[in-house]
Request: fold
Amino acid sequence: MSLKRIRIFIIDDQTVVREILKKMFSTDSECEVVGEAGDPYEASQLIPDLTPDVLTLDIEMPRMNGVEFLRKLMPQYPIPVIMLTSTSERGSEQAIQAMAYGAVDFITKPDGLDSLQSMQTILLAKVKAAAKVKIHQHFQQSRFRKTTLPTSLAVSSHKKYKYVAIGASTGGVTAIRSILAQIPQNFPPILIVQHMPKGFTKTFAASLQREFGLVTREAENLEVLQNNRVYVAPGNFHMTLKYAVGNFVIHLDSTEKINGHRPSVDVLFASIAKTGFAADFLGIILTGMGSDGANGLLAMSKAGAKTLGQDQESSLIYGMPRVAFEQGAVQEQIALAEVATKMRYYLQHPHEV
Reply:
């Protein structure tokens, strides 16, 4: 029986880029390019007949940019989309916006066409992962909007969980948005590690604050945790937590990558386990490729933290939460739609015996 290959459609206004991408995909027996277009108008004529499994979509194009095309495409033809973007501030803003419209993931174009080939390994991995997603479910999750909640999550009792640490990768932008949409204005500190390049995490944090009205920002070195704050680990920096003089203090460093990532979820989770106050924390691992976060979450669990993992059905990519679950790090495995409800419960009720 012949292997069913992933049918890929390339949309990019530069002919040379399309040729490079086709060459990349031609090296992998699991992939085949079934079509290409130089702009969204041409693509819209070809996609219905070619029925691709995955699109690669450039953001910066004449006539109509990739984000606007994605916004119009997804309601009619939900297809897994990998965005290709620049490393500029504008590129990061457009990539985050594309996630909100249903894109599965993005990849940054290296400077210079020659170095474009250096992204081959990661692009192939992202396309293969995208081909497996439940795109209709993901598109519905991406459309989640702010929920009105009159209650507060302010924590006062030492018997309750007081802090939240979240780790995510592919699909995490959508998952995190859906959780924060259900958080009221008064809440304990929330720390987030989302695998993203430098610059993109700042844009991501700004977009969360703008959309949900929560004080959200890139974490800063030696910053003391405060209630009513969401702290996003900066791209290219590990974020750890240390306890000093009655406060938790954020530390950032650029030591070697862990599990291929900086920031790494494992690094944050492991640091929490070492503070001596892990029992005050909720640890949550969400959708993503690979295994980052599993070891750290297990350490948190053993140190007394409450740990939650996203289930397979609601995960865009059931990689990180699967490994964590199989290692015994996840005390409760739940659907994405239940995560915010569970957070509110555990932050407002005493520890279970």
